[in-house]
């Protein structure tokens, strides 16, 4: 335990103040310094997972994506059947059918294949959208798990540091320099640290379960998460955000899908007008469907715009959190520097310096977590602007 504490303290000493990028921290994750492996590796201690490996295996192994692939195949088969049927009836004329029956044949030739094509496009879009969102979620779960491991390591080191303070205090009590009351605050502090372990432990367990579920891995499998390469923190460029959101809404797939469905129904409506004779049921029902879709254009546009603005302001809140965490790191760095000076002057002990170093380490872990969450939120928002 002392060795682990010394490593943490040594790392904290070399951390610079005011940094906007999180320096590498000690972690319970497997080190990725000498590995570029993106695939999973099994060994006696469990299955080692890399972030790239997790993201790469979702498309192949995720149950939701597999079901979407099957849905696309079913739509494709439906299209093949309907297209073949359309080819067989393409040269048929109204005179070959009783009055009112040719409309159904014409719809099967000119409308049904187009509807099938639209269904295929919709299923492919939904599948790709689900895949991308699963990757965003898996990356966040992975980084949160790494962060939880770092928190656990640091809290355990803080507990060890308090134990050292308790030992020093006991020695002074035995020498008559202090009374037993001096132990109370340290014991409370230790209890608080021990209780605080529950949150990152629970988070780690939940994140690992989510990761295993995302890649179709047995939930009982033990996993070791390889520490991913750090990425530079970059703020989202929100210049011209109004026009970018408006453009994203107007060019969104959802709007195009509705417009295309309206066009297909208008073809169907024209067929009913021309070939239904005295039966207006098909024409009326199709007209109502067209009106419903036209009305849904406004609601869809409004919902898309509202969701994008909500995502944008959520991203700004995440940016504010990063700024707050940066200030906390700066304050912790100042405290560490001041403590270091006092230790050299003989006013404080090395144990006090260890406490300051661990407090700095804890704040840097929180900063890294805020930066990771912001980066993923930024990437997801940019994706939503383009889909």
From TrEMBL:
This is Outer membrane efflux protein. It comes from the Bacteria. One of its GO terms (cellular component) is cell outer membrane. Keywords: Cell outer membrane, Membrane, Signal, Transmembrane, Transmembrane beta strand. It is found in: Cell outer membrane. GO terms for molecular function: efflux transmembrane transporter activity; porin activity. It comes from Clostridium luticellarii. Residues 1-23 form the signal peptide. InterPro entries: TolC-like.
């Amino acid at each position: 335990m002392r060795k682990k504490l010394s490593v943490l303290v040594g790392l904290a000493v070399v951390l610079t103040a005011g940094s906007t990028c999180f320096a590498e921290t000690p972690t319970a994750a497997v080190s990725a310094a000498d590995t570029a492996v993106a695939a999973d590796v099994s060994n006696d201690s469990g299955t080692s997972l890399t972030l790239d490996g997790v993201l790469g295996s979702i498309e192949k192994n995720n149950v939701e994506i597999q079901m979407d692939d099957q849905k696309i195949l079913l739509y494709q088969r439906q299209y093949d059947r309907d297209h073949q049927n359309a080819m067989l009836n393409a040269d048929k004329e109204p005179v070959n059918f009783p009055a009112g029956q040719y409309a159904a044949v014409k719809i099967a030739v000119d409308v049904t294949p187009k509807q099938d094509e639209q269904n295929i496009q919709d299923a492919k879009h939904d599948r790709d959208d689900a895949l991308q969102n699963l990757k965003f979620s898996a990356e966040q779960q992975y980084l949160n798990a790494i962060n939880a491991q770092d928190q656990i390591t640091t809290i355990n080191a803080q507990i060890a540091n308090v134990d050292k303070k308790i030992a020093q205090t006991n020695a002074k009590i035995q020498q008559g320099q202090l009374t037993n009351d001096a132990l109370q605050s340290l014991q409370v502090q230790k209890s608080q640290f021990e209780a605080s372990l529950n949150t990152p432990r629970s988070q780690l367990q939940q994140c690992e379960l989510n990761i295993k579920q995302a890649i179709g891995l047995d939930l009982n499998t033990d996993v070791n998460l390889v520490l991913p390469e750090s990425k530079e923190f970059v703020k989202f460029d929100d210049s011209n955000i109004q026009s970018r959101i408006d453009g994203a809404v107007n060019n969104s797939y959802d709007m195009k899908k509705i417009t295309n469905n309206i066009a297909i129904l208008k073809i169907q409506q024209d067929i009913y007008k021309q070939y239904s004779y005295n039966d207006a049921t098909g024409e009326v029902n199709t007209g109502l469907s067209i009106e419903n879709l036209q009305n849904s254009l406004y609601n869809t546009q409004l919902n898309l715009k509202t969701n994008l603005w909500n995502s944008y302001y959520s991203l700004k809140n995440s940016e504010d959190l990063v700024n707050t965490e940066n200030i906390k790191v700066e304050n912790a760095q100042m405290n560490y520097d001041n403590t270091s000076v006092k230790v050299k002057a003989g006013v404080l002990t090395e144990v006090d310096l260890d406490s300051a170093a661990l407090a700095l380490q804890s704040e840097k872990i929180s900063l890294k977590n805020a930066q990771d969450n912001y980066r993923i939120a930024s990437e997801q928002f940019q994706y939503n602007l383009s889909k």
